[in-house]
Amino acid sequence: MEPNSVQPSPAASSPKLIRQIIQYPHPTLRHRSKPLRRVDGELRQMIAEMLELMYARDGVGLAANQVDLPYRIFVMNPTGDPAQKDQEFILINPEILSRRGGVEEKEEGCLSLPGIYAPVRRSTKIVLIAYNLQGQQVQYELEGLAARAAQHEIDHLDGVLFIDRLSETALAAVREKLLELEQEFRTNRRLGLVPDDRQIAARWASLEGLRT
Ligand code: NI
Q: Which residues are catalytic?
């Protein structure tokens, strides 16, 4: 840069609403999300930040609890490719209307359980209703990875993790890694990096009071 050149001002942008993806066993991952009452600019920003985080971490889905928000929203792109916008789903207050097809067991992972992969049984086809960013009701029939990812994300919104759905054998195989994450969480709490349960619950109540 030339010594007398004008420093470009940073692009105008709102401060980030979302800090990070929380990890097992953070209590917000066990909290049942509340349906949202409205869509506004702040919610759009939260969703944009969730998509950004999901792509940055090479995920195919991300639920609001995973970014420490007690709201019933998830984002998903089964291709994991930010360029494939037509494969991007933003689902507000999603509900599974029906499960069709058979059941299939396939390996899953989760951005909140880094390094843990295990087979989970899921329906191969589901019908989902939700609201989109325009506040309109939408309905999707999903199959394959999209159906699996949506079931995984809706579980998150209900406070359920994929490790809750493992066979005894599969759970035993990941037990050591779960204990490591639990140990890491306790250390982070001791260091003051994670608030205590009462503070977390108070934050849920205040965020829910605003939007649910
Ligand atoms: Ni997950």
A: 153
